[in-house]
TrEMBL record:
This is Uncharacterized protein. It comes from Candidatus Sulfotelmatobacter kueseliae. It comes from the Bacteria.
Amino acid sequence: MSTFVKLLPRTTMDEVEQSPIHADPEVEQAVAPSLHTTGWTLESFAEEQIRGLVRQVFLPGWPRPCRQVVFSPVDPGSDISPICMQVGQTLADEGSGEACVVEACPTARDEDGASEDRLAAVGGEKRFGTLRDLSQQLSGSLWFMPRSVFLGGNQNGFSTAWLRARLAELRLEFDYTVLQGPAAGAGSEAALLGATCDGLVLVLQANATRRATAQRVKETLHSANARLLGTVLSERTFPIPRAIYRRL
């Protein structure tokens, strides 16, 4: 079995049923022609899906480019950190500027003393802006900001006024911000983030996220004036075709 990410059409959220969301047959149809391509791998296919998402949303984006985008799962407990990190890495690889993946989920666990250790390591000397100095540099143009740094003294959540000010700070220090948001189906934080940023991308879990739940989330986002940029299907698994096994 293999897993990858697939960007779904905008119309997907409008077609709701009382059943889990299943990946459609188009996936296998899209993969099949690539089996005869030299060097094709599932990993390269997944990377191409992420690049397509980045180009659709950020570079240059539709109908206008976005600089700060929230990625939020529909279901509580879904781990979207790998997707957010892949998006951030792709932005950095494109060479379009400094990108930061921000842990913006109020209920996420912190790394014990991680941000304090980084601040102590530079001896209080500022190399960049305050937020970037407290973040972890993963590569030349990619940074990771843990929850403790993003929230600062607002460990119990954030208000609209505080969030707008924080996002303004991020715009000054990073060209692109990928915010790993909380579950959109639990609480109002994801909708607030989506309304304050340039928009939100919903992450649906294949064969787990229920269409009725996803539709309710969409209505909540609409009521909050949050711009829904698209939906991503994650954890889609399927057997590797026999033709590939024969080549191993």
